[in-house]
């Protein structure tokens, strides 16, 4: 394929990348860019060109050891969810935007430590970026079958590097606040991760099933090649140790590579996304590794040893069979892997460089403008220049140094250097005593060991060098041979460098931390990092600070970086959060921490602290005091929690009161209604009496019979009035508990007969047949006079309900456990089912209207209910197939004597 | 002498009805009697009284509902209606009048006055 057509494809591909990033920036809040899958795939920036090409090379040359780079991350992943969540929380709360911020903040917001971390990261990562550029250049040459050009302007990589620098500096520095989420970059990287996996599996399937006849075929053919067995077993203990260290190394890399920190922590916008990453990311790595082996050994079978660079088998095999499409797709996959690494790493490093090295050590002085725009522009420009510088330096290294080494070895060197951050980093999460000095000395010594055991040997060249440094050691001292330091000769260079550097690093970190206590600020942050869960909502409370500060001064500093409006908004939020009066002049510790946080994203933790310190007057706090204050603030948090609980209880009580009030209102309404009905009921007979008397008084010529009838009406209405008043009084007595029940042993059939006696006339008038049967010796305890009242009421109701002809009433007494149950049944039209319970309420009026007239006085059943219930019995009504039945029960044994 | 005027008395209290019936008959009215709204509506199907005396609280169909039905009937447009009720609250009176009654009298009432008011309504 010609260079030009491939270039056009590349341009097109980069165009898509820019488009996706652009689109995602615009859709920053849509679910397409804010989902756990985008997050997880963006983590796959881990798989750079080294994975894509390098692991095939390693698998081809030395068998299984390529696996370690993936085993490490897979092993750590279960613990990852816990550790990563903690890191994410700490970072979110403190607005941390890089590894350097993270480590330096924990160790007392140390400017020097931040710079050191930045320095180590830059040294560690630049060769790695160079490695990616090298991969792009090499694979480009393979696909186009051209040779390397010594002219920089003829080298495609030059242009790719420039394009990437533009891309990264545009989308990577859109926000001055480095802790803001870069949705464009994340989405583009996630898309590339999907593509590179897809293309890799594509070529894997192609090699395994189209070039060969499946895995078994490859295995059968490969096992005939010399050295197959040795390369594919772990071997003895030394080999196992090598494995172990490589696993450990890649495990650290998951946390400590700037691009991993960037994607996993800084760009994380929801903790819950980790839950998806925990299974999807290992799955991704697994899928990536399935075909490494067949491609590697497929290549070994097809190409004789030394004839081809094993790193590029995935390109060479399809090319060998003239399959241009697959060749180009594989190239694009590798290109994706490279550029996402370059972009993310250079953004991460540029933030560190600007926020932790350049601004705190120099440019802070130039950010004094009172105009926010100028300062912001300057910060962004610093970062842009950093990105360009990083890529240019990496480009130079690629041009002049790394051409000799394979992908795997450079990658591992980079890992070992980054691993020097491990003791301080993990110590920050786990150990309160870890101190700034311990971290600095440990890291420095560890780094120096790396320089000695890796950087110098690699710098002067491992194979094609005349120096005796590697073979004989420094100044010919055997013990100082860089690859067999202190005589340790059974580890390969990388594991042994890792071993010694980490050993020194860790021991020094621990020893110095234990020997020299950190200052109060370190201790303060140690507490906030380790107990982040306690402080994550009100973390400003946990910040210990004493001195004099004025809100106005702090506001002024904030305005320089955030601008008028954002500063105002931020302070409003602060005042609301802590219930602070906005006119308060004195600033407290919380506001200082809050302000530092606001600035951190812009200029890094150290500079934020320097700036704020410049406008406040801080007093030293003793370590003792810090612990004391922290204890208090923890208590405060507990008190706050209790307050919340109490206020919840209060809310509950309020709700109960409200309910009680509603009930009272309802009762009140019922009482009103009751009075209403009572007056109505009283007025009716009075009306009749008045009308009749008026006629009698005015009209002298009424016929005698009529005159008597009117008088009779007056008498009966007067009786009715009297009965009504008695009933109301009765009910009142029952309801207020003034009514006494005098229960004695009585025979129920006697009582029923006695009750029926006065009703005979009424029953006869309507031609009703009454059936009364007792099937038991019906003796029970009750107040006979009262029960006669009940029976009278129920029977007269039944009479009322009975039809005009053939009315039937039956009365039965049955045993019902400890009770005698009396049932009075009529053959009328029954009771409206929805009224069955309510008819026992006094003056019950049918549900949907309040003007329907109740049957009778509306008090009879209510009184019956009171009487029966005072006997500890029950009364209820039901409809039978024809007519209604009223039941009531009375206890057979004395149950009222205790009343 | 005028043609006899027709009156429909709707109330479920027999003793009150008896007084009303006697008085109106004596005042030359032809009297019809219904014990509740339902009965009243039955009678109104065949009779077109000049005036109706309507109680409010009655079993089955109450006075308000009865008036609503009456107002729907075009044949009864000229028919005057007097509510005669023990419900004497402001809101009851308002409701009765808003339904289109010509008068709302509360119980207990004066028979004499009722006759006077009725006559007056009919001579308007």
Q: Can you give a write-up of this model?
A:
The complex is a heterodimer of chains A (899) and B (124). Chain A is mainly α and 899 residues long. Chain A has 4 domains: 519 residues, Sodium/glucose cotransporter (Up-down Bundle); 85 residues, no CATH class; 108 residues, Signal transduction histidine kinase, dimerisation/phosphotransfer (DHp) domain (Helix Hairpins, Orthogonal Bundle), CATH 1.10.287; 148 residues, Heat Shock Protein 90 (2-Layer Sandwich). In chain A, the strands form 3 sheets. Chain A has a 5-stranded mixed beta sheet. In chain A, helix 6 runs antiparallel to helix 16. The N and C termini of chain A lie far apart (108 Å). With 124 residues, chain B is an alpha/beta fold. The two termini of chain B are 18 Å apart. Chain B has 5 helices and 5 strands.
How are the secondary structure elements laid out?
The complex is a heterodimer of chains A (899) and B (124).
Chain A: H1 3-26, H2 36-43, H3 49-62, H4 68-94, H5 99-106, H6 111-144, H7 156-171, H8 183-211, H9 215-222, H10 228-231, H11 237-256, H12 258-266, H13 273-290, H14 292-302, H15 313-320, H16 324-361, H17 372-400, H18 407-418, H19 422-430, H20 436-460, H21 469-472, H22 493-515, H23 520-530, H24 532-535, E1 547-548, H25 551-578, H26 589-615, E2 617-618, H27 623-698, H28 704-735, E3 744-747, H29 748-756, H30 760-765, E4 769-774, E5 779-782, H31 784-801, E6 808-816, E7 819-826, H32 860-870, E8 875-879, E9 884-891
Parallel strand pairs in A: 4-6
Antiparallel strand pairs in A: 1-2, 3-5, 6-7, 7-9, 8-9
Chain B: E1 5-10, H1 14-26, E2 29-34, H2 37-46, E3 51-54, H3 63-72, E4 80-85, H4 90-98, E5 103-106, H5 111-123
């Amino acid at each position: 394929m010609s260079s030009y057509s491939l270039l056009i494809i590349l341009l097109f591909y980069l165009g898509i990348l820019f488009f996706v990033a652009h689109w995602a920036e615009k859709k920053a809040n849509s679910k397409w860019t804010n989902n756990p899958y985008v997050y997880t795939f963006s983590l796959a920036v881990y798989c750079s060109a080294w994975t894509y090409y390098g692991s095939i090379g390693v698998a081809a040359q030395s068998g299984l050891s390529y696996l370690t780079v993936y085993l490490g991350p897979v092993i750590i992943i279960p613990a990852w969810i816990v550790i990563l969540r903690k890191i994410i929380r700490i970072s979110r709360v403190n607005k941390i935007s890089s590894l350097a911020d993270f480590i330096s903040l924990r160790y007392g917001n140390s400017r020097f430590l931040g710079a050191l971390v930045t320095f180590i990261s830059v040294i560690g990562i630049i060769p790695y970026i160079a490695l990616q550029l090298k991969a792009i250049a090499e694979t480009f040459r393979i696909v186009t079958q051209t040779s390397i050009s010594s002219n920089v302007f003829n080298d495609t990589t030059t242009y790719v590097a420039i394009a990437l620098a533009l891309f990264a500096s545009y989308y990577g520095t859109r926000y001055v606040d480095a802790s803001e989420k870069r949705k464009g970059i994340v989405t583009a990287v996630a898309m590339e991760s999907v593509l590179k996996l897809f293309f890799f599996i594509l070529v894997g399937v192609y090699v395994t099933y189209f070039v060969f006849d499946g895995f078994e075929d490859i295995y059968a053919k490969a096992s005939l090649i010399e050295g197959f067995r040795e390369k594919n077993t772990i071997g003895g203990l030394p080999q196992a140790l090598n494995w172990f260290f490589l696993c450990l190394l890649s495990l650290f890399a998951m946390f400590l590579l700037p691009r991993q920190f960037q994607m996993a922590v800084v760009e994380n916008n929801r903790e819950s996304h980790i839950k998806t990453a925990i299974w999807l990311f290992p799955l991704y790595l697994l899928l990536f590794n399935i075909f490494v082996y067949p491609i590697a050994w497929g290549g070994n079978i097809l190409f004789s040893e030394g004839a081809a660079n094993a790193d590029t088998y995935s390109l060479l095999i399809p090319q060998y069979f003239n399959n241009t499409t697959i060749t180009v797709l594989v190239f694009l996959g590798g290109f994706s892997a490279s550029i996402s690494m370059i972009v993310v790493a250079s953004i991460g490093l540029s933030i560190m460089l600007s926020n932790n090295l350049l601004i705190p050590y120099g440019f802070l002085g130039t950010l004094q403008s009172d105009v926010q725009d100028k300062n912001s522009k300057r910060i962004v420009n610093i970062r842009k220049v950093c990105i360009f510088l990083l890529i240019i330096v990496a480009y130079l290294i690629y041009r002049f140094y790394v051409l000799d080494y394979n992908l795997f070895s450079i990658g591992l060197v980079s890992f070992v250097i980054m691993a020097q951050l491990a003791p301080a980093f993990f110590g920050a999460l786990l150990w309160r005593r870890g101190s700034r000095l311990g971290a600095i000395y440990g890291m420095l010594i560890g780094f120096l060991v790396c320089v000695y055991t890796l950087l110098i040997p690699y710098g002067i060249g491992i194979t094609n060098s005349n120096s005796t440094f590697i073979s004989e050691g420094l100044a010919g001292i055997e013990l100082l041979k860089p690859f067999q330091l202190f005589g340790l000769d059974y580890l390969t260079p990388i594991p042994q460098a890792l071993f010694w550097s980490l050993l020194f690093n860790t021991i020094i970190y621990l020893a110095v931390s234990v020997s020299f206590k950190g200052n109060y600020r370190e201790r303060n942050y140690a507490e906030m990092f380790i107990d982040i869960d306690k402080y994550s909502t009100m973390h400003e409370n946990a910040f210990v600070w004493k001195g004099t500060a004025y809100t106005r001064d702090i506001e002024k500093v904030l305005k320089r970086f955030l601008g008028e409006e954002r500063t105002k908004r931020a302070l409003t939020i602060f005042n609301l959060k802590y219930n602070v009066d906005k006119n308060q002049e004195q600033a407290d510790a919380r506001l200082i921490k809050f302000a530092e946080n606001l600035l951190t994203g812009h200029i890094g933790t150290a500079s934020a602290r320097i700036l704020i310190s410049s406008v406040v007057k801080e007093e030293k706090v003793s370590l003792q005091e810090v612990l004391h204050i922290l204890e208090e603030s923890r208590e405060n948090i507990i008190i706050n929690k209790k307050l919340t609980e109490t206020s919840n209880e209060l809310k509950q009580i309020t709700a109960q009161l409200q309910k009680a009030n509603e009930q009272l209102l309802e009762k009140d309404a019922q009482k009103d209604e009751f009075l209403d009905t009572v007056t109505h009921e009283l007025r009716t007979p009075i009306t009749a009496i008045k009308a009749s008397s008026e006629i009698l008084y005015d009209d002298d010529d009424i016929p005698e019979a009529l005159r008597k009838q009117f008088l009779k009406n007056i008498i009966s209405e007067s009786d009715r009035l009297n009965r009504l008043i008695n009933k109301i009084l009765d009910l009142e007595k029952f309801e207020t508990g003034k009514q006494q029940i005098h229960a004695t042993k009585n025979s129920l059939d006697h009582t029923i007969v006695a009750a029926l006696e006065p009703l005979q006339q009424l029953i006869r008038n309507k031609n009703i047949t009454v059936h009364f049967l007792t099937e038991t010796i019906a003796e029970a305890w009750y107040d006979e006079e009262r029960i006669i009242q009940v029976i009278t009421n129920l029977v007269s109701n039944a009479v009322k309900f009975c039809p005009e002809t053939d009315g039937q009433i039956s009365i039965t007494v049955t045993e019902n456990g400890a009770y005698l149950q009396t049932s009075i049944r009529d053959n009328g039209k029954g009771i409206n089912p929805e009224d069955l319970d309510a008819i026992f309420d006094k003056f019950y009026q049918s549900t949907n209207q309040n003007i329907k007239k109740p049957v009778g006085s509306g008090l009879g059943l209510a009184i019956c209910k009171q009487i029966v219930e005072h006997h500890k019995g029950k009364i209820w009504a039901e409809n039978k197939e024809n007519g209604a039945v009223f039941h009531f029960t009375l206890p057979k044994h004395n149950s009222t004597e205790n009343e | 002498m005028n043609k006899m005027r027709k009156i429909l008395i709707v109330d479920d209290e027999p003793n009150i009805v008896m007084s009303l019936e006697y008085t109106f008959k004596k005042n030359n009215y032809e009297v019809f009697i219904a014990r509740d709204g339902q009965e009243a509506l039955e009678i109104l199907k065949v009779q077109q009284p000049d005036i109706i005396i309507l109680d409010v609280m009655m079993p089955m169909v109450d006075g308000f509902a009865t008036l609503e039905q009456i107002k729907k009937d075009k044949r009864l447009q000229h028919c005057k209606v007097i509510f005669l009720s023990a419900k004497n609250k402001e809101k009851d009176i308002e409701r009765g009048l808003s339904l289109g009654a010509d008068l709302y009298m509360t119980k207990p009432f004066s028979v004499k006055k009722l006759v006077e008011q009725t006559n007056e309504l009919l001579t308007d």
